């Protein structure tokens, strides 16, 4: 069930969103707490009408009551961070266990490593990939399918961004910090690494690589893959892009920023709260979400377990959102969507101009979806114009037919058509002859 806004750029408030004040978050917390007794009664009622000893459990009325109870619980619950659930993978036809562990950590991010436990070492090393996940409302587990697709033939690392309400106020985080984090992670991995930015991180990843190249950093990545990223939102602007341009940064600062309430560790931090982001996500496709929950009710009554589980899996991920640091969020909106600083050559990092033309050693691949309604066609491809010093034979652009934003990094076409191309690109990145042949395809 691909949803266009699932995992795109930092979410923008929906039309008609209320002006927030500090008490808004506190009122939300009070509303959540006030629903706890109702949820407890609903859970008990559901168990009663699903009990095989209850004769009503086998009737249409009993099944409808149990289904209604589940819908109430699911639509009023606060969803926590999902689990990765990637316990094993298949490498060269053999199933091997996978251990997910942190290899680097800072207040706003952990670098997770999907350690495949081989019985014997591989004959030849596989490409090491740093996947930079979106920090745009959803957790990094949004890219579970992306990681799963790369695990059989790659050594995979991913950024696991923190919920801002769980980070003490003493720790700051803005777009400059984001770029620093990416550079530090590439240093930790020690070179010979391929970096892949999914959607929103495309701009900070390009900035990080540009800064490293300007410094002649020895740990610059071997290749850079950008997928559905808003590099230049002036090209083929989408509704999301137009809204940011029309509103301006002051509207976002005054409308969607509030403070984290007690008892969260980040109490009094300015954030763009997850519950407001979720309101924006759902408003973009309200009819579709309502229909999905109507179908859930019908399938619960019918007892169609497969369709029910599919709905639960999707919405357990979709409804799990986190707060974003206000400094990071506002800087990103202003830099990427309002001022278009990177394509104009005006973006700076800690007072120094970001110059993508300095990139010379890094191979570049951009991937776009034909039907992407979040990052329009051409917005990611614009990177090739900015990184003008990369030789033509070390750059590749690919448009996947028939997919929207979500399909750029997940789904059947991603696995069967996009992943093999990215793999070939990464393997060939250090071989100019092979990469030249790949670029010509």
TrEMBL record:
SUPFAM superfamilies: alpha/beta-Hydrolases. Pfam families: PHB_depo_C. Residues 228-428 form the PHB de-polymerase C-terminal domain. This is Polyhydroxyalkanoate depolymerase.
């Amino acid at each position: 069930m691909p949803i266009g806004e699932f995992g795109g750029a930092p979410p923008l408030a929906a039309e008609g969103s209320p002006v927030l004040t500090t008490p808004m978050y506190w009122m939300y917390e009070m509303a959540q707490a006030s629903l706890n007794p109702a949820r407890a009664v609903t859970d008990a009622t559901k168990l009663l009408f699903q009990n095989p000893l209850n004769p009503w459990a086998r009737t249409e009325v009993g099944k409808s009551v149990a289904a209604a109870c589940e819908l109430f619980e699911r639509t009023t619950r606060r969803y926590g961070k999902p689990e990765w659930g990637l316990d094993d993978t298949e490498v060269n036809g053999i199933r091997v266990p996978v251990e997910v562990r942190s290899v680097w950590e800072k207040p706003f991010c952990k670098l997770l490593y999907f350690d495949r436990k081989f019985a014997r070492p591989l004959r030849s090393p596989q490409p090491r990939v740093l996947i930079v996940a979106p920090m745009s409302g959803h957790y990094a587990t949004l890219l579970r399918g992306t990681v799963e697709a790369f695990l059989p033939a790659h050594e995979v690392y991913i950024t696991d961004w923190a919920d801002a309400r769980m980070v003490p106020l003493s720790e700051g985080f803005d777009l400059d910090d984001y770029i620093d984090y990416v550079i530090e992670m590439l240093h930790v991995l020690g070179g010979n690494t391929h970096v892949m930015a999914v959607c929103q991180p495309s701009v900070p990843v390009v900035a990080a690589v540009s800064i490293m190249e300007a410094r002649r950093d020895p740990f610059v990545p071997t290749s850079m893959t950008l997928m559905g990223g808003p590099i230049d939102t002036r090209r083929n602007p989408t509704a999301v892009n137009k809204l940011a341009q029309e509103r301006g940064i002051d509207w976002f600062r005054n409308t969607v920023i509030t403070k984290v309430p007690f008892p969260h560790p980040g109490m009094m931090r300015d954030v763009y709260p997850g519950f407001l982001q979720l309101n924006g996500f759902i408003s973009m496709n309200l009819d579709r979400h309502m229909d999905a929950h109507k179908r859930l009710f019908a399938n619960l009554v019918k007892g169609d377990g497969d369709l029910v589980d599919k709905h639960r899996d999707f919405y357990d991920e979709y409804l799990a959102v986190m707060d974003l640091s206000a400094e990071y969020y506002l800087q990103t909106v202003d830099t990427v969507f309002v001022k278009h600083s990177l394509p104009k050559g005006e973006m700076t990092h800690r007072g120094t101009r970001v110059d993508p033309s300095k990139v010379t050693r890094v191979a570049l691949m951009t991937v776009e979806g034909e039907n992407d309604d979040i990052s329009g066609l051409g917005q990611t491809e614009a990177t090739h114009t900015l990184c003008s010093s990369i030789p033509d034979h070390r750059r590749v652009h690919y448009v996947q037919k028939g997919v929207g934003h979500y399909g750029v990094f997940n789904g059947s076409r991603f696995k069967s058509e996009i992943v093999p191309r990215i793999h070939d690109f990464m393997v060939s990145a250090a071989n100019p002859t092979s990469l030249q042949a790949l670029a010509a395809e």
